[in-house]
Design a protein that fits this description.
The complex is a heterodimer.
Chain A (H helix, E strand, L loop, with lengths): L2 H24 L4 H22 L5 H19 L1 H14 L12 H15 L6 H12 L4 H7 L4 H17 L12 H20 L6 H20 L6 H14 L25 H14 L7 H12 L6 H17 L3 H15 L1 H9 L7 H11 L4 H14 L3 H14 L1
Helix pairs in contact in A: 1-2, 1-3, 1-5, 2-3, 3-4, 5-6, 6-8, 6-9, 7-8, 9-10, 9-11, 10-11, 11-12, 11-13, 12-13, 13-14, 14-15, 15-16, 15-17, 16-17, 17-18, 18-19
Chain B lengths: L1 E9 L8 H19 L4 E6 L6 E3 L5 E3 L8 E10 L2 H9 L10 E6 L8
Antiparallel strand pairs in B: 1-5, 1-6, 2-5, 3-4
The chains are: A mainly alpha, B alpha+beta.
Chain lengths: 409, 117
């Protein structure tokens, strides 16, 4: 790896590990100190490696510098010694206070516990994603701001408030008990899927950044799957779902950066390796009796990776949406269900069902109606596409609608 | 918004359908429920299989199945959200059970736990 890429790469992979381990040691009250120590470690690395070249084992180097910095901090800071040190000594049986454990096992445990601490319903969803990106994925404030189409100040404020909330709520970094784990996991999975969706459906034009968000979500979910106590069917289902979606990255955007709709995608660009990974985790998800919303969505995503446009495919997708909507309604699922209905049962019954959806505030609703009326009543189709165009918020969506209208004139 | 139970009544529960016919009914029922769920109006529901059905009489006599003298039986029910009984009736009209002559769907408002009903 080139030297100039080495530090950003290590920052992504190691920053969050160092912060998690330190936080587990110090407590969430001192999350900013943990972040400072991790940041300083990288600053030292940049300075030293710039002059002397990278050490043979950069990761070990980072850990040892981080340990020393943490040790120095503990020694310097009297508050730490009197208050925190006492607290730590009570809750941990470490005799040597200053020893920071950066073993693979402790890193993995710390990251997992950090996930549970951050993905908590007491923190607003947006802030959960922001904190996850910062603390669990090592994203820079600039990158988070770009992903949210926001600015650094707003993001900094949001993260600050989220950390304050963590402090106020007296959240502990700990592993939830066996009885609680399913409920708490639900929150973690929600945040991971939001993180993925933020990348997949983001308004940001930066393709690399968007894909990074998606693969970070996959990485976090993989940590859960690799740990025995969180290796649950619904976790595997979510991982499978994300792999299936990710397989279409290359196909869903053209050379000009425009979105390409599913029907118009070059299926040769679908990534078979990712599809196979999706299938692997879908198989692992079917071990219990539980059928979560992630199972249904993963099964839908599986059918979407099937290239042949068969009745079986659309009938299966329709029935999966029928079940999904009974578990959890969402406008997008209702619209997708109606599209599947048109493919399985025909456009006329789908139009009747679409008219009942009561989603006239949603531009995708009119885009769907336009699609359904195409070939049945082209005038109505154009009117609906025009309505969708007037309501569309992003350039990408507007472009798509203009193309539809032009195609019909 | 109120909740209504849509109770599917079969005129003759002893009628035997072919597996193909059952397959079609099943799909129609799933599509019907999916359509209600797509309007965010579905609450819950269940089918009531005829197998293992018993009728318990007032004197403690237990008989097999709901079919004795009376052939009419309940095939299942779903609960929906609706602003009015008229809206609930519109949902009921789409029920595939009504394709069978003599079958009915009974629409009943669910009592609220508000001390009034």
């Amino acid at each position: 790896m080139e030297k100039k890429e080495l530090i950003p790469h290590l920052f992504r992979t190691e920053y969050s590990k160092i912060v998690s381990v330190l936080c587990r040691r110090f407590g969430l009250d001192y999350i900013e100190i943990a972040e400072d120590i991790a940041s300083e470690t990288f600053l030292t690395a940049a300075q030293t490696w710039g002059l002397n070249g990278a050490p043979p084992n950069p990761v070990a180097w980072l850990y040892s510098v981080a340990k020393n910095k943490a040790k120095n901090h503990l020694q310097r800071n009297t508050v730490f010694e009197t208050k925190v040190a006492a607290a730590i000594q009570n809750s941990y049986s470490y005799s040597d206070m200053s020893e920071i454990d950066l073993s693979p096992q402790n890193i993995s445990d710390s990251q997992l516990q950090m996930m549970f601490a951050i993905c908590d319903p007491s923190i607003p969803a947006e802030a959960q994603i922001g904190l996850s990106l910062r603390i669990l994925c090592g994203f820079g404030i600039d990158e988070i701001a770009e992903a949210f189409l926001s600015n650094k100040e707003t993001i900094n404020k949001r993260l600050y408030r989220a950390k304050e909330k963590l402090r106020q709520e007296q959240k502990k970094i700990e592993f939830p008990g066996a009885a609680e784990i399913n409920k708490r996991l639900e929150n973690v999975l929600t945040t991971i899927y939001l993180l993925f969706s933020e990348g997949y459906y983001s308004v940001s034009q930066n393709q690399t950044l968007r894909q990074d968000l998606c693969f970070e979500a996959i990485r976090l979910c993989s940590i859960l799957v690799e740990n025995k106590s969180t290796d649950k069917p619904q976790v595997n289902a979510l991982l499978s779902l994300m792999y299936f979606h990710a397989s279409r990255f290359e196909a869903r955007v053209n050379k000009n950066g425009d979105l390409v709709l599913y029907d118009d995608q070059d299926t040769n660009l679908w990534d078979d390796e990712l599809i196979n990974k999706g299938a692997h985790f879908l198989k692992r998800a079917t071990t219990g009796n539980e059928l979560s919303k992630y199972h249904l969505q993963a099964a839908i995503a599986y059918w979407n990776t099937q290239r042949a446009d068969t009745t079986e495919k659309w009938e299966s997708i329709l029935q999966l949406y029928n079940s999904l909507l009974q578990i959890e309604y969402s406008p997008i699922a209702a619209l997708n269900r109606t599209y599947a209905l048109s493919k399985a049962n025909g456009k006329l019954p789908a139009i009747i069902e679409a008219e009942k959806l009561n989603l006239s505030g949603n531009h995708f609703y009119f885009a769907l109606l336009g699609e359904l009326y195409t070939g049945i009543d082209d005038k109505k189709a154009i009117l609906n596409f025009q309505q969708a165009l007037s309501m569309a918020k992003t350039d990408t969506d507007k472009k798509l609608m203009r193309k539809k209208i032009e195609g019909m004139l | 918004m109120d909740e209504y139970a849509l109770i599917m009544r079969h005129e003759d529960g002893t009628k035997v359908a072919s597996p193909e016919q059952m397959q079609i009914w099943m799909k129609q029922t799933m599509d019907w429920i999916g359509g209600i769920a797509a309007q965010n109006k579905f609450v819950s529901g269940t089918g009531l299989p005829f197998a293992d059905a018993k009728v318990v009489g007032h004197n403690g006599i237990v008989t097999d199945g709901p079919f004795g003298e009376i052939k009419e039986t309940i095939g299942g029910f779903i609960t929906v959200k609706a602003d009015s009984v008229e809206e609930a009736v519109e949902f009921a009209k789409g029920c595939p059970v009504l394709a069978g002559e003599g079958n009915t769907v009974e629409v009943r408002k669910i009592a609220k736990r508000d001390g009034v009903h």
